[in-house]
Amino acid sequence: MCKCILPVLSNQKSNAFLKEIAMVCGIRKPFTTQLARHRFATTIALTNEVPIESVSIMFGHKYLITIQL
Predict the structure, then answer these.
(1) Is 22:32 a contact under the CB 8 Å cutoff?
(2) Residue 61's pLDDT band (boundaries 50, 70, 90)?
(3) CA gap 35, 4 in Å, rounded
(4) What is the pLDDT of residues 7-25, one digit of tens each?
(5) If phi over 0 gives left and psi between -120 and 50 gives alpha, with beta otherwise, what is residue 49?
(6) What residue spans define the domains of the chain?
(7) Cβ neighbourhood burial of 62 (10 Å; 0-12, 13-18, 19+)
(8) Residues 25-48: pLDDT tens digits?
(9) Which of 34, 8, 36, 38 is nearest to 22 (CA)?
């Protein structure tokens, strides 16, 4: 079982917080939980040569194919 460092929020609450942070930072593009997860996977993890299997585990996917879609 995974121990969470931060409280687990609903996507709706997370998106509301992300929208508020984006507004404070002057970001005008839509910013959602899904976009943040995708951006982390592509820009941070895979660009820094983190194996795709590790990214899949971090995201809690049961099958590797899920992250490859």
Answers:
(1) no
(2) confident
(3) 21
(4) 777 888 888 888 898 899 9
(5) left
(6) 13-68
(7) exposed
(8) 998 888 888 888 888 888 888 888
(9) 36
